[in-house]
UniProtKB/TrEMBL annotation:
DNA damage as UniProt keyword: no
Cofactor(s) required, per the database record: Mg(2+)
Organism: Albidovulum inexpectatum
Family statement drawn from the similarity comment of this UniProt entry: Belongs to the 5-formyltetrahydrofolate cyclo-ligase family.
GO biological process: folic acid-containing compound biosynthetic process; tetrahydrofolate interconversion
Descriptive protein name: 5-formyltetrahydrofolate cyclo-ligase
Binding positions for ATP per the UniProt entry: 126-134
Keywords: ATP-binding, Ligase, Magnesium, Metal-binding, Nucleotide-binding
Xref: NCBIfam families: MTHFS_bact
Length: 185
């Protein structure tokens, strides 16, 4: 394992522990600032995610978004994500890595993405799960036009500096249960 890979693995392990503790102390009101922020993006195609394990829950924001909403579908390793249209009454089935995805539906191309993460810093960088799916996806979408990538996390997931590499795509905003962070970069 390279030095950067082991640094990221250690940072991930510590961040998972902080996220697990934060998850036990929070609830549905955690998405209030995210809902407020997304009101400025009414009508735009939004990508959310189906929260797994100890991820902060973005479903309250997805349910009230005024516009099409999609969730990520992993088609194969090493490829960008695609987003299948989601509604609160969509029939959901397990996808890759156990995340729920709509059983059927049209594909959408989001202009706003709620991005899950393990850790973040105030520069706008995130530590993900290590597969590079969101980095590839954001690079592809940004090549096609403006995109707003919003990291959504518990404030406890903040770290002083996320270890990064050239392929890491920065976030435009980070929303926690306490604040909206606008990275300066």
């Amino acid at each position: 394992m390279s030095d950067l890979a082991s640094i990221k693995a250690e940072a991930r392990a510590a961040a998972f522990a902080r996220r697990r503790q934060a998850h036990g102390r929070h609830g549905p009101k955690d998405a209030a600032l995210l809902i407020e922020l997304l009101a400025d993006h009414a009508g735009e195609a939004l990508a959310g995610y189906m929260p797994m394990r100890t991820e902060i829950d973005c479903l309250p924001a997805m349910r009230v978004h005024e516009g099409p909403v999609g969730v990520p579908v992993i088609e194969s390793p090493g490829t960008p994500l695609r987003f299948r249209r989601w509604t609160p009454d969509a029939v959901m089935v397990p996808g890759a890595f156990g995340a729920l995805i709509p059983e059927s539906g049209e594909w959408i191309e989001p202009r706003v993405l709620i991005v899950p993460l393990v850790a973040f810093d105030r520069r706008g960088y995130r530590l993900g799960y290590g597969g590079g799916f969101y980095d590839r996806t954001l690079a592809r979408l940004r090549a096609r036009g403006p995109v707003t990538a919003i990291g959504f996390a518990f404030s406890a997931q903040e770290m002083p500096e996320v270890p990064i590499e050239p392929t890491d795509e920065p976030l435009d905003l980070i929303v926690t249960e306490r604040e909206i962070i606008r990275p300066k970069g």
